[in-house]
Specification:
2 domains, Rossmann fold, 19 strands, single chain, Metallo-beta-lactamase, Chain A, 9 helices, globular, alpha/beta
Length: 345
Protein backbone atom coordinates (compact mmCIF):
# COMPACT_ATOMS: atom_id res chain seq x y z
CA UNK A 1 0.00 0.00 0.00
CA UNK A 2 1.34 3.42 -0.98
CA UNK A 3 2.37 5.57 1.95
CA UNK A 4 0.58 8.96 1.93
CA UNK A 5 2.75 12.02 1.40
CA UNK A 6 1.56 13.38 4.75
CA UNK A 7 0.50 11.14 7.61
CA UNK A 8 -0.79 11.77 11.13
CA UNK A 9 1.01 10.19 14.08
CA UNK A 10 1.39 10.83 17.81
CA UNK A 11 3.76 13.76 17.23
CA UNK A 12 2.02 15.63 14.43
CA UNK A 13 1.61 15.69 10.67
CA UNK A 14 4.60 13.85 9.23
CA UNK A 15 6.28 13.81 5.83
CA UNK A 16 8.28 10.57 5.91
CA UNK A 17 10.22 11.22 2.72
CA UNK A 18 11.61 14.53 4.07
CA UNK A 19 11.61 13.53 7.76
CA UNK A 20 9.79 16.78 8.55
CA UNK A 21 6.75 17.52 10.72
CA UNK A 22 4.13 20.21 10.11
CA UNK A 23 3.00 22.01 13.31
CA UNK A 24 4.05 19.08 15.55
CA UNK A 25 2.63 18.98 19.07
CA UNK A 26 5.54 16.97 20.52
CA UNK A 27 9.27 17.78 20.24
CA UNK A 28 10.80 16.74 16.91
CA UNK A 29 14.00 17.44 14.99
CA UNK A 30 12.56 19.34 12.02
CA UNK A 31 9.35 21.36 12.17
CA UNK A 32 7.63 23.62 9.65
CA UNK A 33 5.33 26.01 11.51
CA UNK A 34 2.22 27.64 10.05
CA UNK A 35 1.75 30.46 12.58
CA UNK A 36 2.43 31.73 16.08
CA UNK A 37 -0.55 30.53 18.13
CA UNK A 38 0.53 28.24 20.94
CA UNK A 39 -1.34 25.16 19.71
CA UNK A 40 0.56 25.27 16.39
CA UNK A 41 4.00 26.56 17.43
CA UNK A 42 5.28 24.66 20.45
CA UNK A 43 8.53 24.72 22.32
CA UNK A 44 11.12 21.93 22.10
CA UNK A 45 11.83 21.35 18.40
CA UNK A 46 15.46 21.33 17.24
CA UNK A 47 14.90 23.21 13.96
CA UNK A 48 12.01 25.52 13.01
CA UNK A 49 11.05 26.77 9.54
CA UNK A 50 8.31 29.40 9.19
CA UNK A 51 7.43 32.56 7.28
CA UNK A 52 9.86 35.36 8.12
CA UNK A 53 7.09 37.58 9.55
CA UNK A 54 6.29 34.81 12.02
CA UNK A 55 9.90 34.57 13.23
CA UNK A 56 9.72 37.47 15.74
CA UNK A 57 6.34 36.22 16.96
CA UNK A 58 7.47 32.70 17.82
CA UNK A 59 10.77 33.96 19.22
CA UNK A 60 8.79 36.27 21.51
CA UNK A 61 6.77 33.30 22.71
CA UNK A 62 9.36 30.50 22.64
CA UNK A 63 12.66 32.27 23.31
CA UNK A 64 15.94 31.77 21.43
CA UNK A 65 15.07 28.92 19.07
CA UNK A 66 16.87 27.78 15.91
CA UNK A 67 14.49 29.20 13.29
CA UNK A 68 14.75 29.92 9.57
CA UNK A 69 12.42 32.39 7.87
CA UNK A 70 11.11 31.92 4.33
CA UNK A 71 9.34 34.23 1.86
CA UNK A 72 5.91 33.63 0.39
CA UNK A 73 6.05 31.12 -2.49
CA UNK A 74 9.77 30.44 -1.89
CA UNK A 75 10.45 26.79 -2.74
CA UNK A 76 12.85 24.87 -0.53
CA UNK A 77 13.66 21.21 -1.05
CA UNK A 78 14.32 18.59 1.62
CA UNK A 79 15.36 15.12 0.43
CA UNK A 80 13.58 15.60 -2.89
CA UNK A 81 10.37 16.99 -1.38
CA UNK A 82 9.45 20.54 -2.39
CA UNK A 83 7.94 22.80 0.26
CA UNK A 84 6.62 26.35 0.05
CA UNK A 85 4.61 28.72 2.28
CA UNK A 86 1.50 30.55 1.10
CA UNK A 87 -0.64 33.16 2.90
CA UNK A 88 -3.37 31.76 5.14
CA UNK A 89 -4.94 35.09 6.14
CA UNK A 90 -5.51 33.84 9.70
CA UNK A 91 -3.21 36.25 11.59
CA UNK A 92 0.00 38.11 10.77
CA UNK A 93 2.60 35.64 9.50
CA UNK A 94 0.15 32.74 9.12
CA UNK A 95 0.89 30.32 6.29
CA UNK A 96 -0.41 27.31 4.46
CA UNK A 97 2.24 24.68 3.75
CA UNK A 98 2.42 23.26 0.21
CA UNK A 99 4.17 19.89 -0.11
CA UNK A 100 5.06 18.35 -3.48
CA UNK A 101 6.72 15.04 -4.27
CA UNK A 102 6.83 13.20 -7.61
CA UNK A 103 4.02 15.32 -9.02
CA UNK A 104 1.69 14.87 -6.04
CA UNK A 105 0.70 18.03 -4.14
CA UNK A 106 -0.70 18.32 -0.61
CA UNK A 107 -1.60 21.50 1.25
CA UNK A 108 -1.92 21.90 5.01
CA UNK A 109 -3.87 25.04 5.92
CA UNK A 110 -3.04 25.38 9.60
CA UNK A 111 -5.72 27.92 10.55
CA UNK A 112 -7.04 30.22 7.83
CA UNK A 113 -9.67 32.77 6.87
CA UNK A 114 -10.64 34.13 3.48
CA UNK A 115 -11.71 37.66 4.50
CA UNK A 116 -8.91 40.22 4.14
CA UNK A 117 -8.50 41.79 7.59
CA UNK A 118 -6.12 44.52 6.41
CA UNK A 119 -3.21 43.44 8.60
CA UNK A 120 -2.53 39.82 7.57
CA UNK A 121 -1.34 38.84 4.10
CA UNK A 122 -4.62 37.83 2.38
CA UNK A 123 -5.46 34.15 1.90
CA UNK A 124 -4.17 32.60 -1.31
CA UNK A 125 -5.79 29.65 -3.09
CA UNK A 126 -3.22 26.88 -3.65
CA UNK A 127 -4.12 24.15 -6.14
CA UNK A 128 -3.52 20.64 -4.83
CA UNK A 129 -4.53 16.98 -4.90
CA UNK A 130 -5.12 16.67 -1.16
CA UNK A 131 -6.18 19.43 1.25
CA UNK A 132 -5.84 19.25 5.04
CA UNK A 133 -8.32 21.78 6.39
CA UNK A 134 -9.35 23.03 9.80
CA UNK A 135 -13.10 22.99 10.59
CA UNK A 136 -13.27 25.27 13.63
CA UNK A 137 -16.56 26.76 12.42
CA UNK A 138 -17.68 23.95 10.15
CA UNK A 139 -21.43 24.35 10.69
CA UNK A 140 -23.94 26.14 8.41
CA UNK A 141 -24.94 28.32 11.39
CA UNK A 142 -21.67 30.23 11.11
CA UNK A 143 -21.85 33.05 8.57
CA UNK A 144 -19.70 36.11 9.21
CA UNK A 145 -20.76 39.73 8.89
CA UNK A 146 -18.15 41.82 6.99
CA UNK A 147 -15.39 43.11 9.26
CA UNK A 148 -16.10 46.79 8.50
CA UNK A 149 -19.65 46.45 9.83
CA UNK A 150 -18.48 44.71 13.00
CA UNK A 151 -15.87 47.39 13.69
CA UNK A 152 -18.49 50.11 13.20
CA UNK A 153 -20.62 48.37 15.82
CA UNK A 154 -17.66 48.18 18.20
CA UNK A 155 -16.78 51.86 17.84
CA UNK A 156 -20.43 52.85 18.30
CA UNK A 157 -20.60 50.67 21.42
CA UNK A 158 -17.50 52.38 22.81
CA UNK A 159 -18.95 55.85 22.13
CA UNK A 160 -22.23 54.90 23.83
CA UNK A 161 -20.40 53.62 26.91
CA UNK A 162 -18.34 56.78 27.02
CA UNK A 163 -21.50 58.90 26.96
CA UNK A 164 -22.73 56.90 29.96
CA UNK A 165 -19.47 57.57 31.82
CA UNK A 166 -18.33 53.95 31.64
CA UNK A 167 -15.09 52.29 30.59
CA UNK A 168 -15.25 49.77 27.71
CA UNK A 169 -13.32 46.51 28.20
CA UNK A 170 -13.03 44.50 24.98
CA UNK A 171 -11.73 40.93 25.09
CA UNK A 172 -9.74 39.35 22.24
CA UNK A 173 -6.82 36.94 21.95
CA UNK A 174 -3.48 38.63 22.54
CA UNK A 175 -2.08 37.50 19.18
CA UNK A 176 -4.15 38.20 16.09
CA UNK A 177 -7.58 39.25 17.32
CA UNK A 178 -6.30 42.06 19.56
CA UNK A 179 -4.24 43.63 16.76
CA UNK A 180 -7.11 43.29 14.31
CA UNK A 181 -9.36 45.16 16.74
CA UNK A 182 -6.70 47.74 17.51
CA UNK A 183 -6.10 48.54 13.85
CA UNK A 184 -9.70 49.68 13.39
CA UNK A 185 -10.59 51.24 16.74
CA UNK A 186 -11.37 54.94 16.34
CA UNK A 187 -8.86 57.00 18.39
CA UNK A 188 -11.04 60.10 17.97
CA UNK A 189 -13.46 58.58 20.51
CA UNK A 190 -10.85 58.32 23.26
CA UNK A 191 -7.68 56.64 24.44
CA UNK A 192 -6.86 52.98 23.80
CA UNK A 193 -5.42 51.12 26.79
CA UNK A 194 -4.02 47.60 26.68
CA UNK A 195 -3.45 44.69 29.02
CA UNK A 196 0.26 43.86 29.34
CA UNK A 197 0.00 40.60 27.36
CA UNK A 198 -1.58 42.41 24.42
CA UNK A 199 0.80 45.35 24.63
CA UNK A 200 3.84 43.04 24.62
CA UNK A 201 2.66 41.23 21.48
CA UNK A 202 1.63 44.45 19.77
CA UNK A 203 5.13 45.87 20.33
CA UNK A 204 6.51 42.85 18.43
CA UNK A 205 4.15 43.54 15.53
CA UNK A 206 4.36 47.35 15.31
CA UNK A 207 7.30 47.24 12.84
CA UNK A 208 4.98 45.39 10.44
CA UNK A 209 1.69 47.30 10.90
CA UNK A 210 0.71 50.94 11.48
CA UNK A 211 -1.33 50.67 14.70
CA UNK A 212 -2.96 53.50 16.66
CA UNK A 213 -1.23 54.65 19.85
CA UNK A 214 -1.85 52.51 22.93
CA UNK A 215 -1.25 52.92 26.66
CA UNK A 216 -0.26 49.96 28.82
CA UNK A 217 -2.35 49.43 31.95
CA UNK A 218 0.01 49.21 34.94
CA UNK A 219 -0.35 49.16 38.71
CA UNK A 220 0.06 52.92 38.65
CA UNK A 221 -2.82 53.43 36.22
CA UNK A 222 -5.68 55.17 38.01
CA UNK A 223 -9.34 54.41 37.48
CA UNK A 224 -9.97 58.04 36.59
CA UNK A 225 -7.57 57.74 33.64
CA UNK A 226 -9.56 54.85 32.21
CA UNK A 227 -13.04 56.36 32.45
CA UNK A 228 -14.73 56.60 29.06
CA UNK A 229 -11.81 55.01 27.22
CA UNK A 230 -11.42 51.48 25.86
CA UNK A 231 -9.19 48.67 27.14
CA UNK A 232 -8.11 45.67 25.05
CA UNK A 233 -7.61 42.58 27.21
CA UNK A 234 -7.26 38.81 26.71
CA UNK A 235 -10.29 36.68 27.67
CA UNK A 236 -8.37 35.30 30.66
CA UNK A 237 -8.48 38.76 32.28
CA UNK A 238 -12.25 38.59 32.68
CA UNK A 239 -13.16 38.05 36.32
CA UNK A 240 -9.59 38.64 37.50
CA UNK A 241 -8.46 41.10 40.15
CA UNK A 242 -6.84 43.10 37.32
CA UNK A 243 -10.21 44.21 35.97
CA UNK A 244 -11.57 45.61 39.23
CA UNK A 245 -9.88 48.97 38.82
CA UNK A 246 -11.93 49.56 35.65
CA UNK A 247 -15.23 50.07 37.58
CA UNK A 248 -17.69 51.20 36.29
CA UNK A 249 -17.07 49.23 33.11
CA UNK A 250 -18.93 47.44 30.33
CA UNK A 251 -17.51 44.26 28.79
CA UNK A 252 -17.49 43.07 25.20
CA UNK A 253 -16.01 40.00 23.51
CA UNK A 254 -14.94 39.58 19.88
CA UNK A 255 -15.07 35.96 18.74
CA UNK A 256 -16.78 33.70 16.25
CA UNK A 257 -18.44 31.95 19.18
CA UNK A 258 -20.36 35.14 19.95
CA UNK A 259 -22.73 34.01 17.22
CA UNK A 260 -24.32 31.96 20.00
CA UNK A 261 -26.29 33.86 22.65
CA UNK A 262 -25.38 31.18 25.18
CA UNK A 263 -21.69 31.98 24.76
CA UNK A 264 -22.24 35.63 25.65
CA UNK A 265 -24.36 34.77 28.65
CA UNK A 266 -22.09 32.09 30.08
CA UNK A 267 -18.97 34.23 29.71
CA UNK A 268 -20.85 37.02 31.52
CA UNK A 269 -20.03 39.63 28.89
CA UNK A 270 -22.37 42.52 28.24
CA UNK A 271 -21.93 42.52 24.47
CA UNK A 272 -20.74 39.99 21.93
CA UNK A 273 -19.23 40.90 18.57
CA UNK A 274 -19.03 38.12 15.97
CA UNK A 275 -15.50 38.44 14.62
CA UNK A 276 -13.41 35.38 13.84
CA UNK A 277 -9.91 34.71 12.53
CA UNK A 278 -11.20 31.51 10.89
CA UNK A 279 -13.37 30.69 7.87
CA UNK A 280 -17.11 30.50 8.24
CA UNK A 281 -19.10 27.66 6.62
CA UNK A 282 -19.18 29.29 3.21
CA UNK A 283 -15.51 30.24 3.36
CA UNK A 284 -14.52 26.65 4.07
CA UNK A 285 -16.58 25.24 1.20
CA UNK A 286 -15.45 27.86 -1.32
CA UNK A 287 -11.81 27.40 -0.35
CA UNK A 288 -11.93 23.64 -0.77
CA UNK A 289 -13.66 23.92 -4.14
CA UNK A 290 -11.09 26.45 -5.38
CA UNK A 291 -8.14 24.14 -4.62
CA UNK A 292 -9.40 21.48 -7.03
CA UNK A 293 -8.54 18.83 -4.44
CA UNK A 294 -10.37 15.51 -4.57
CA UNK A 295 -9.11 14.32 -1.18
CA UNK A 296 -9.92 16.41 1.92
CA UNK A 297 -8.79 15.66 5.47
CA UNK A 298 -10.74 17.55 8.15
CA UNK A 299 -9.03 18.38 11.42
CA UNK A 300 -9.88 20.45 14.51
CA UNK A 301 -13.39 21.79 14.91
CA UNK A 302 -16.63 20.27 13.62
CA UNK A 303 -14.68 17.76 11.58
CA UNK A 304 -17.18 14.87 11.71
CA UNK A 305 -20.14 16.93 10.55
CA UNK A 306 -18.12 18.80 7.96
CA UNK A 307 -16.47 15.71 6.47
CA UNK A 308 -19.82 13.94 6.13
CA UNK A 309 -21.17 16.92 4.21
CA UNK A 310 -18.12 16.88 1.92
CA UNK A 311 -18.69 13.18 1.22
CA UNK A 312 -22.26 14.02 0.18
CA UNK A 313 -20.78 16.56 -2.24
CA UNK A 314 -18.61 13.85 -3.77
CA UNK A 315 -15.26 14.46 -2.08
CA UNK A 316 -13.00 11.73 -0.75
CA UNK A 317 -13.18 13.15 2.77
CA UNK A 318 -12.21 11.89 6.20
CA UNK A 319 -11.23 13.22 9.62
CA UNK A 320 -7.93 13.15 11.50
CA UNK A 321 -7.24 13.84 15.15
CA UNK A 322 -4.83 16.61 16.08
CA UNK A 323 -3.99 18.64 19.17
CA UNK A 324 -4.96 21.96 17.62
CA UNK A 325 -7.71 23.95 19.28
CA UNK A 326 -8.61 26.86 17.00
CA UNK A 327 -10.71 29.43 18.84
CA UNK A 328 -12.12 26.69 21.08
CA UNK A 329 -9.09 26.86 23.37
CA UNK A 330 -10.91 29.38 25.54
CA UNK A 331 -14.46 28.71 24.43
CA UNK A 332 -16.61 25.65 25.23
CA UNK A 333 -18.02 25.25 21.74
CA UNK A 334 -20.02 22.09 22.44
CA UNK A 335 -22.01 23.78 25.21
CA UNK A 336 -22.64 26.79 22.99
CA UNK A 337 -24.16 24.63 20.26
CA UNK A 338 -26.28 22.62 22.70
CA UNK A 339 -27.63 25.71 24.40
CA UNK A 340 -28.38 27.48 21.12
CA UNK A 341 -30.26 24.43 19.81
CA UNK A 342 -32.25 24.16 23.07
CA UNK A 343 -33.39 27.78 22.72
CA UNK A 344 -34.68 27.09 19.20
CA UNK A 345 -36.74 24.03 20.21
Amino acid sequence: MKQPLLAFNDKGIYCHQADVYLDPWRPVTNAIITHGHADHSRWGHKNYITHHTNVPIIRHRLGEINVTGKDWNETFTINGVKFSLHPAGHIIGSAQIRVEYKGEVWVFTGDYKTEDDGISTPYEVVKCDAFITECTFGLPAFKWTPQAEVMTDINNWWAENQADGKTSVLFGYSLGKAQRLLKYLDPSIGKIFTHGAIENMTEVLRPMVDFPETIRVTRETKKEELAGNIILAPPSAHGSTWIRKMTPYVTGSASGWMAFRGARRRRAVDRGFVLSDHCDWTGLLESISATGAEKVICTHGYSDIFSKYLIELGYDARTANTQYEGESGEMDAKKDVEEENAEKE
